């Protein structure tokens, strides 16, 4: 008999953290952008975070299917009746942010058949960029491309058409707030 979990399987959290944690990510970023300036640096930062978000979500989707929990089975049964949005995508958003940021919960600001919104109030990626690469780089919020790419990858893989919006960013607002609105 397969062991079932109600919480996200710790193997998922650990595997994603090992590969995508802030320290490792920012060290890799610093190496890849060392010596770059101006537009070349900006392009490299955007590319790095776009690829990071894509790779993170692909890993989460793979591990989330491999290590299914009881809650996920309930979510999938519900999705068969009303559609995947927002519950199935919310699971993968939570897997990504809980794993990478090592936070206890993702603050879901709205979750209905039309919109999925969430807020990140303490981001280890942003904080580590600020610490290792300086406030000038962190405050430009190139890391937002990771969150956008993560969402785009999620919805493309689930064949759900959405508009993804950034409502607030850490450097200006003290938190990041993202909302996906399902297209009808």
Structure summary:
By secondary structure, this protein is an alpha+beta fold. The chain has helices at 10-20, 22-33, 38-66, 70-82, 87-101, 124-133, 135-138, 144-157, 170-173; strands spanning 107-111, 115-120, 162-168, 176-182. It has one domain (10-182): Muramoyl-pentapeptide Carboxypeptidase, domain 2.
Please give the structural blueprint.
Blueprint (H helix, E strand, L loop, with lengths): L9 H11 L1 H12 L4 H29 L3 H13 L4 H15 L5 E5 L3 E6 L3 H10 L1 H4 L5 H14 L4 E7 L1 H4 L2 E7 L2
Antiparallel strand pairs: 1-2, 2-4, 3-4
Helix pairs in contact: 1-3, 1-5, 2-6, 3-5, 3-8
Describe the overall structure.
The structure is a single chain. The mean pLDDT is 95. The chain has one domain: Muramoyl-pentapeptide Carboxypeptidase, domain 2, CATH 3.30.1380. A hairpin with a 3-residue loop joins strand 1 and strand 2 (115-120). The protein starts with 9 loop residues before the first helix and ends with a strand. It has a four-stranded antiparallel beta sheet with strand order 1-2-4-3. Helix 1 packs antiparallel against helix 3 (38-66), helix 1 (10-20) packs across helix 5 and helix 3 packs across helix 8 (144-157). Helices cover 61% and strands 14% of the residues. It has helices at residues 10-20, 22-33, 38-66, 70-82, 87-101, 124-133, 135-138, 144-157, 170-173, and strands at residues 107-111, 115-120, 162-168, 176-182. The chain has nine helices and four strands; from the N terminus they run αααααββαααβαβ. It is of the alpha+beta class. It is globular.
């Amino acid at each position: 008999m397969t062991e079932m979990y109600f919480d996200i399987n710790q193997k998922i959290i650990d595997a994603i953290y090992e590969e995508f944690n802030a320290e490792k990510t920012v060290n890799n970023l610093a190496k890849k952008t060392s010596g770059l300036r101006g537009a070349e640096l900006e392009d490299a930062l955007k590319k790095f975070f776009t690829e990071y978000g894509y790779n993170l979500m692909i890993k989460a989707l793979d591990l989330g299917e491999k290590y299914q929990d009881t809650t996920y089975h309930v979510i999938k049964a519900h999705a068969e009746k009303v559609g995947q949005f927002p519950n199935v995508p919310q699971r993968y958003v939570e897997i990504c942010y809980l794993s990478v940021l090592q936070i206890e919960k993702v603050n879901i600001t709205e979750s209905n058949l039309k919109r999925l919104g969430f807020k990140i109030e303490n981001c280890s990626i942003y904080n580590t960029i600020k610490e290792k690469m300086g406030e000038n780089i962190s405050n430009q919020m190139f890391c937002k491309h990771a969150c956008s790419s993560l969402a785009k990858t999620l919805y493309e893989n689930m064949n759900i058409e959405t508009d993804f919006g950034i409502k607030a960013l850490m450097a200006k607002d003290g938190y990041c707030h993202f909302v996906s609105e399902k297209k009808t």
